[in-house]
Amino acid sequence: MVTAILGSIILSLGSAFAAEKPNIVLINADDLGYGDLGCYGATKLKTPNIDRLATEGRRFTDAHSPSAVCSPSRYGLLTGSYPLRKNLWGPVPLREPLTVEVGSMTLASLLKEAGYDTACFGKWHIGFGEKEPDWNGELKPGPLELGFDTYFGIPSVNSGPPFVYVENHRVFGADPEDPFQYGKPSVAKRMPEKGGYGAIGGGEAAHKLYVDKRIGTTLKERAVDWLKGRSDERPFFLYLATTNIHHPFTPADRFVGTSECGRYGDFVHELDWIVGEVLAAVEARGATDNTLVVFTSDNGGMLNVTAQKAWKAGHRINGDLLGFKFGAWEGGHRVPMVVRWPGKVPAGTTSDTLISQIDLLATFAEITGRKLKEGEGPDSIGQLENLTGASPKPLRETLVISPNSPKHLGIRHRQWVYIPQRGSGGFQGRKPGEHLLAGPPGLAFAGRPNSDIVDGKYRADAPMAQLYNLEEDPAQSTNVIADHPEVVAELETILKRYRAMVPKGPRIGWINLKQ
């Protein structure tokens, strides 16, 4: 009886919202940590535009990215599928084809089917092409084959090649007389990324259009121009995937020196400005009241050299959470999420219920009145009642935690987190000043206590697996695995079911960090 009533409520909510077909703006920041915003406790930097979203909407304190790593996180967000289903664990290499199967249901194809005008601006990083990207020809399939009408952005990551923009199916500004060539020294004069990216040279004309400190401004301008230039009355879906705040930290000149924690905070300031400009463009169209805005991040903050300097200045990139990007501890994947939808999402509210970006697909389907079919968004749970405050209890109880290391694939179930190995499965830098500082030495640097670790090293008697009660210990300071064998057995059973979904064959993007 209760189930039937709840189902009726969801159906009626979805039908009412579908009739209005709200515009949707999804802003996905890069490497923004749980503690990087004023509304999440930051004091050494200012984020008035994002904070205003929280004041006018709902702030989530237990929201998670699909992975603690960029590419698998973006895969999960777009498809509503755990990246383990694709055997995807790390950054998609430069020569990797499109990792999402054409014809799959995505956020963009769902909304395009519902009559939306769809656009993506910013970081893609989930591959192009059927076999590998053709940087001198058509980059197809890509965003347009997954439901976007328009795409402009960077194909990979702002710290690695090819250091160009892509517009729809081609490299923006490319000169056929100066083709891209793998193995040729890059005129971009940047060090090639390690970890499977490889070097690619040529394409000087396209490289010249790619200026690091103008990337944020360029993506903002493209998104705003698209909003301003729309002449039809169809609802719109704007997906803006910023490169802020991924290293290198290259804010526009106007933001340099504006924070109290160096370039790290300055880059967050530029991000907040970008968000404000997009919101202003929505308002200029008179569309604020009928626009759902979701702001979030692709994974937790990374303790790179610039972040270490910010930390010394008093800024806590992941707040009080344990761990960093790439790892299974909460700091790797618990992220900011702020949702505003005037008249639908209660203003000035906070939700501590469990939610994942994987749930956006099913939630957008509820909003548009579309019932997902078998195989569409298989891991996505509709969270419309959570967004609107209609549900007094969590809609999701279980979540797969996906770090870089497959051995550290973990399970969150209610208040419990189970990680079947020591450590986080993330970066392994050992000394302050190292770009990849993390793990036990990273905790020592950050002053984060954990019962398995003393002075930046594992205790000799530390257990080989981990269990934490987040209700009692949100900072994961105490491993209680020895005290709750029955909980471990239950979570191991759940984990075994998900491990069986990982396809055989080579892992995509996986970086061997010698875990």
UniProtKB/TrEMBL annotation:
<keyword id="KW-0106">Calcium</keyword>
<keyword id="KW-0378">Hydrolase</keyword>
<dbReference type="InterPro" id="IPR024607">
    <property type="entry name" value="Sulfatase_CS"/>
</dbReference>
<dbReference type="InterPro" id="IPR017850">
    <property type="entry name" value="Alkaline_phosphatase_core_sf"/>
</dbReference>
<protein>
    <recommendedName>
        <fullName>Sulfatase N-terminal domain-containing protein</fullName>
    </recommendedName>
</protein>
<keyword id="KW-0732">Signal</keyword>
<dbReference type="Pfam" id="PF00884">
    <property type="entry name" value="Sulfatase"/>
</dbReference>
<dbReference type="InterPro" id="IPR050738">
    <property type="entry name" value="Sulfatase"/>
</dbReference>
<dbReference type="InterPro" id="IPR000917">
    <property type="entry name" value="Sulfatase_N"/>
</dbReference>
<comment type="similarity">
    <text>Belongs to the sulfatase family.</text>
</comment>
<keyword id="KW-0479">Metal-binding</keyword>
<feature type="signal peptide">
    <location>
        <begin position="1"/>
        <end position="18"/>
    </location>
</feature>
<feature type="domain" description="Sulfatase N-terminal">
    <location>
        <begin position="22"/>
        <end position="369"/>
    </location>
</feature>
